[in-house]
Amino acid sequence: MDKKKIMAFVVWALVICGVVQQVRSDASDHRYKVGDDVPLYANKVGPFHNPSETYRYFDLPFCSSGPRKEKKEALGEVLNGDRLVTAPYKLDFLNDKDSETACKQKLTKEEVAQFRNAVSKDYYFQMYYDDLPIWGFLGKVDKEGKTDPSEYKYYLFKHLHFNVFYNKDRVIEITVQSDPNSVVDLTEDKDVDVEFTYTVKWKETEIPFEKRMEKYSHSSSLPHHLEIHWFSIINSCVTVLLLTGFLATILMRVLKNDFVKYAHDEESADDQEETGWKYIHGDVFRYPKHKSLLAAALGSGSQLFTLTIFIFLLALVGVFYPYNRGALFTALVVIYALTSGIAGYTAASFYCQLEGSNWVRNLLLTGSLFCGPLFLTFCFLNTVAIAYSATAALPFGTIVVIFLIWTLVTAPLLVLGGIAGKNSKAEFQAPCRTTKYPREIPQLPWYRKTLPQMAMAGFLPFSAIYIELYYIFASVWGHRIYTIYSILFIVFIILLIVTAFITVALTYFQLAAEDHEWWWRSFLCGGSTGLFIYGYCLYYYYARSDMSGFMQTSFFFGYMACICYGFFLMLGTIGFRASLFFVRHIYHSIKCE
Q1: Does residue 200 contact residue 96 with C-beta atoms inside 8 Å?
Q2: 313-334: pLDDT as tens digits
Q3: What is the pLDDT of residue 573?
Q4: Higher confidence at residue 241 or residue 207?
Q5: What is the sign of the dihedral through the CA atoms of 378, 380, 381 and 385?
């Protein structure tokens, strides 16, 4: 079996290396000669404050200088909402241009109104030049000295100034500025003639090609940003050390007293009535209700935990550098598909340990427990994106590719893992025999019920990651860049430790109160941090962001619900595993009848 595990690990490592190589190979490494055509691709436009609501560049009535050619996109780029098409501007290598005409057109009243609506919503554009991103706003609103919105003046920028930096035969950096003095008045509904022009200036730089992406990550690595991140970690560590140390001291002292007391009771009076957690030793390993669902949840949680670890490994080796378009989505899809065997093996193995018989139904439940809600959410949100004609709407071909990956990779590996788990013949390690009839659980105060315990369990881990969450949200649902993956990994490890410890502590107090139904409680308490994160989503949306509109709102709360549900399953698995280890340990340390 050890050889099989080693071989499986080697295969996974090779596959992950393949993913790394594929993701890295997407980066441009072109060398150019003077006058070479370096294509400038227009990607998308959209309201600045609504990152999910993006449209194709030519959905707005921009003119074109020639036939439009769409760039072939990889899977991750399509999932990211990228739709690259040749822009009307030509930036030949080392060719300076001064007020060159890109194209001319006559805007109708309807097109003027379309542009005016875009300018009023702070629309921005994004382009790519040799895989380097550039942005700019489409226009400006003149509100100076005006209180009535009907008096605002709307202007469309018609001149762009490109500054391109090169090192020998390679493009290193590009910036773009709009000329605030070269504008078209869009305030009135009337036909307007527009001539889009641009200027190109080439400048030499000493920055090597290998470091051209560093400027995008510098914004998240500025000293004051790093100070905040390190303050976040130190704050989390101090809080965690104090609270966990406090709990550990109490727990160890109480457990030591319990062991001494129970040992003394065994020596002095065997017929003495037992109390506390030893009293329920005949019930503590009684299999839980809905054991198939619990096994499926543990399988899905184990898979998501493995997926998270692999994503962190790729991030730490530098795969997800800024604007490596679609790299994260490609890695998520591929690694999730390849790790489905872990879900199948864990779920089927645990289900069979609990003497479950219908392992096929358990496997179907495992496969649909996370993918089912994700699929339903995707169907709804993709329909919304199609109604808005947004780039977030996946083309039919991409949906077919994802379905084929699920059918040909995810499902077979899930079944193979399930068969391996069923045939593992592992037995449930219970130090105490379970009695025939369960003891009645005594009446417990309200704060020992499931919901108050979940609130207590989720608060401490959430407080450890609270500060870092803002930067992650600002990156995923905004335009900030997040590249400090080492700090994020430390925060993740702290989250795991705190989740495991707080769940163990609450499990002990539950058993001490002679409540033996700890299985589901430990899972729910461990996963409750996911509910706190979703609560933070409400705070972030209304207090820290300027997002608005039905599409952006539905995308934000829809996909964050899926992410928080994934955290619930993953952290619930961590909490349950820690509690199971703890319960086995304490009951193994005493003499059970």
Answers
A1: yes
A2: 999 998 887 777 788 999 999 9
A3: 98
A4: 207
A5: positive
